[in-house]
Amino acid sequence: MIGREDEVREFRSRVWGFQALLVICWSILVFRLFYLQIIKGDALRKFSEANRLKNEKLLPTRGVIFDRNGKVIVDNRAAFDVVLLSQYFKNTPDNVSRLARALNYSKEEMDKRLQKIGKSRSYIPLLLKADVSKDIIASIETSYPSLFGVDIEATVQRRYPFKDVASQLLGHISEVDSKDVQRDSRKTLQPGDYIGRMGLERYYDSDLRGVNGVGYVEVDAMGRRRKVEGAEKLLGFVAQTEPVPGNNLYLTLDVDLETAAANSLKEHKFNGSVVALDPRSGEVLALVNEPSFEPELISGREINPKVWASLRDNKDRPLRNRAIQDIYPPGSTFKLFMAIAAMAEGKASRQTSHFCNGSMSFGKRKFNCWKHHGYTDFVKSIRESCDVYYYNLGISLGPDVIAKYARLFGLGQPTEIKLPGEQRGLIPDTQWKMERFKDIWHPGETLSIAIGQGYISATPIQLANAYAAIGNGGFLYKPYIVKKIEKRNGELIKEFHPELKRKIEIAPEVFESVKDGLYQVANSPGGTAIVSGHSKKVVISGKTGTAQVRAFSDIMRMKCESMPIKDRHHGWFVGYAPRDNPEIAVAVIAEHSCHGTAAAPIVRDVIEAYFNKKNPPQVSEVDDKKKIEKVAPRKQTVEELDGEGGEVGPET
Amino acid sequence: MESQRFIKTFNVGLIVSMFLLFLLGIITLYSAARGPGLHGLYKSQLIYFGLGLVMMAVLVFIDSEILQKVSYLSYGIVLVMLGLVLVIGHDAKGSSRWFNLGFFHLQPSELAKVSIVMTLAKYFADEKQGGPYTLKRLIVPAILILPYFLLILKQPDMGTGGIVFLTAGALILFVKVDWRSLVIVGILGVITVPLAYQFVLHDYQRERVKTFLDPERDPRDTGYNALQCKIAVGSGQLFGKGYLKGTQSQLNFIPEQQTDFIFSVFSEERGFFGALVLLVLYGAYCFYSFRTVARARGKYEMLLAFGLTAIMFWHVFINMGMVIGVLPIVGVTLPFFSYGGSSLLTFMLITGLLLNISRKRYIF
Is the separation of the CB atoms in B229 and B264 below 8 Å? Predict the structure, then answer.
């Protein structure tokens, strides 16, 4: 016992030292509390009562999108939302009905909105109505101060001034949901942010979005935001990080051409797609899909669910970027690659001739041509789109050689345009057939492929790009749509230049021969688009095509126009102008239009719009055109004189 | 006569100050936790308090010889738990600090504070040579402390890690360190602190330190807390805004105001005067536990009591210091005030152990 007492004695004196330390630390706390509560207390009390400081996210303004001529095609405008700070709002029947009146809400709608009170924290503003008119702002302001806690919030609304023009290409934006935030690997997204949902808005989202800022907002005792002088001084620091605005995109797109193309497709009353490229660079000049939609309607803080549902569930798929996302059999537009392959492989020359008596027997089956062509040489086979001629070429080439040449021109592979969701299409060969169906290639299938039917498929942009490569003599570019990205202050961030995917090494004579054929299609008697695709303004070369919707069936024998619309063939026209050193290549698919000749006038409209803009027409020229139209209504003539029909393809 | 002696010898001051602190704490907690999703927190806090009282009643009658014997065992068990919690612990806000036992979230780092004190007390009590200690003779204690410290930092929980470090440090100073060794440690500290800051701390921890030193740097998160606390405390003035009338706290301007920042709620509502009362109560608690230290009859008991007092002292000083902006923001709870079962039970465990030691002096 005594020994233990000895052990501890020396420590006892040390306890005093630690007690002194406690007194010192406590004194520090007391002095600090005195400083805060007594010396600064009055000022901080006033601050806490009159103003409540909150830190708040400051949204950056999203980047602006310009067309190739500097026209604004997507920007932002100021908008005003009505919000409720429920902690300040007196939820009496009188106040609720006054609020409903101010907002133009029915009682049910108002109640539905107010139900959200209590589900979120009381100091988080609850959205009552987004993007309200000036009238509503005025009526809210005049109802004040009885509507405590109701506030107007200035926000930014994405604006698409050209309405439904290029909508699928531009895309739209919307508020992120919790999944988006989770998926975001770089952890830059916060609830309440907006991100691009389709098209360029989505592909270039990280460029366009900008960086959030943080600011302090003073909220007064009524829940209204206001600025209080000297707040920074009192609190000892400036509390603000400015948001960084998004970067601007400059496109290769010409919005005038885009509008002209969309109008043409609309006038002809077809759903479908138009792609116009510059064969000298791969720049996308126009990219149109019909039907279309107005992105602004689904880019706000609040989206009308009915509007969204009507777009999403529409059978005509207005949200679809057909130009890159839909695949169609290329039909007779594929014959060009057959012709090139045959000539390059030495299986045909300009003089190679086959006799067409309207059909061809192969194996046990009879393969039809759409017309009795008689003796047909190389150029005529393109001009008049003789199926029998290509059945013969198909037999001599075989599926794998055909596939090789089609792929040289970029078919069956993505064009690598920087847009979300591009489809690659399909160029079948024997290996593919074996992997896909565990079956050998049947020779008859080669005949279907030879005229662009069967398994084969392509997107409009692939065909436009492949024809651009024919027109320019073998330069296959990667199509691109964004020319440069700049900061808001004009500082260049990224510039995009033409990118050659490959130089197609085929003798120039081959290109010259097929280009003769393409020229004659729209410029020589007998050409399948001599009326529908011919232009007085500029020399258009091109090729008609028909994509069968229902490949092998009895209705094949029926006349296309007498079938139900959904079973009718799609019409293609793909071409370029002028004949030498073309400046524009255009592919048009006119869905369920039965004939390629239905698509040709749209190509002509686009090409003429392009050249009219480049060299504005003289007054007399315009008059001439009108006169011609009066004398001979175009539509009638088209059907009489052009004629690659839907009744093509192998018979079963 | 017996009962009178019992009351006289029993550390009544410690119990009374604990009850008064808890009473003020639960009243404040009711006010702090009225926001959405927080209702009824005070009820579970009351249940934990009841559990804690039972635990204390048992603890008081345990022979401290037994405590001494299980000291190293407790060290091992807690060490395993600290390792395990990193692997299978429950994740919250980016840190894995506790085991989810369904009815209770067990936080091994809370036990670590008590366990390290028991272990060091046992070590120094058995060390017959006694102080002053040179660095060489402190190698074993350092090896005991380091795994705890590092495992807790890894969670990451800088607050508790700091408490473990500071408590162990205080205990070592208490057993007396050779002055030359102290100078060397001081120099080493000056060198290693910047290195640790650069390489050991997590980004968010560095941010907090930077924000403390220069609030203008990043006003986003850490600066926001510090700022709102400052407004809350300062606006309390002399007598406070009144119970349930603190605008800062009632409008939820302060995140975590029911746990680490509850002192801001209290001082907003009760003012300078209330804060002084609170400091006096904590001071009284520490005074009575220091008295337990001074009167302890064995070396182990004395060192144990001292270490437990140090835990309490550091918690109060660091928590209040960070709320009123004299220390950087670290996650350290305010004893008997902050919401949380692990925290409350730990402080009641400490109180129970202190009572055990103070009782023992006279029972023999």
Answer: yes
